[in-house]
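Hello,

Following up on my earlier ticket. Below are the two sequence lines again, exactly as submitted.
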Amino acid sequence: MTAIPNDRMAELSQRFTELEPELKDSSEKEALSILHGMIQESRREMLAWTGQNYSGQDQSFEKIANLYKSAPGMEGPAENEGLPVGIPAPDFTLPDADGNQVSLSDFRGKNVVLVFYPLDWSPACSDQLSLYQSELPDFEKQDAVVIGISVDSLYSHGAWSLVRGITFPLLADFHPNGEVSKMYRVMRKTEGFSERALYIIDKGGNIRFSHVSPLIHHIPDIYELFEQLEEINQ
Amino acid sequence: MSEKPVINEPEVSNGNNVVVYGTRWCAATQYVRRFLDRNNVEHDFRDIDRDKEAADQVRWWTGGYLSHPTVKIISDILVEPLSNEIQQSLEKNNLI
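Thanks for your patience. The regenerated structure is below:
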C-alpha cells in the first residue's frame, strides 16, 4: 500500500507535463506554471530540512561554495581568437596555489588540456572546473593532464580549489598581470582577465586544438573535447 | 567546437525514462549528462537552444524560467539538481 501515494504523484506529474502543449499562452497558464515551480522548490527545501539531502558539510562552508550561484553574471562576446593549431605551444612558468613554480614543459610526454578561464569564484568558471574535476579519471585514460590558468593570485586559487575540491593545478597569471594569457592571445584587455579558452597540447609540446568560447559564459562541449583527445591519441 | 544558432529543431526522442533538458554550452548540463553516462543510465538530451518544444516544456515546469539543466526522471522533475538529488531520484525509481 505504501507505493500508492508515489504512484498517484507520478500520475499527477505526468498529466501536468502532458498539458503544456494544450494550453495557450495566458496569465492563467503562467500562474499554473509558477505554482508548479513553487511546489518543486518546496519539496526540495523540505528534503533538505529533513536531512535527506544534507551533505554533512559545515553550512557556512557550503554557503561559500555556493556563492557563485548568486554572484553577478559574466557575459560578453570573445575579443580574441587565440593561437592557431600546428605551432609549438609557448613555454611558461607560473606559480600554483602552493607557490610551486610550474612550467608547461614539466608535462612533456603527456597531453595537456590548458584551460584559460576568466576568474575564480565567478559563476560559469565554478561549474566548468568542477566538471573537469569530475572527469579526471577519463582525462587520465586519454593520458592527459588538466591545468587551469587565470589572472587570480595563488592565494585566491588556494581558497577556491579547497572550496570546490579541485585537485589539478591552478596557475596564477597574476604578475605581470596576464602575461601568459597575452602570450596565448586570450587576454581581454577591456576587462583585465582572460577569455574562456581551451588548448590541447600534445605530448611533443605542439598545439593540436584551440578553442575560444564565442561567448564568455559558454563552456566548451565536453563530448567534443574528449573526441579531440581521442583523435590526438590515434 | 561549433555552437549552432537558435532554431526550432525538436530532437528525436528515444523514449528514455530519463530526459535531460539543457544546453550544450552549460557546464552543469554537461555534468549531469556525464554523471548519467558514468552510471550507465540511458537518457535523452533535449537541447533547449534548438528545440522550442523542449524549451516550452521547461518553462511550464519552472514557472517561466528557462532553467538548465532540468532533468525528468520518470515523473520527477528536478530543476538544476545537485548530483545527490539525481542519485536519490534514480534510486527511488530503481534506475540504478
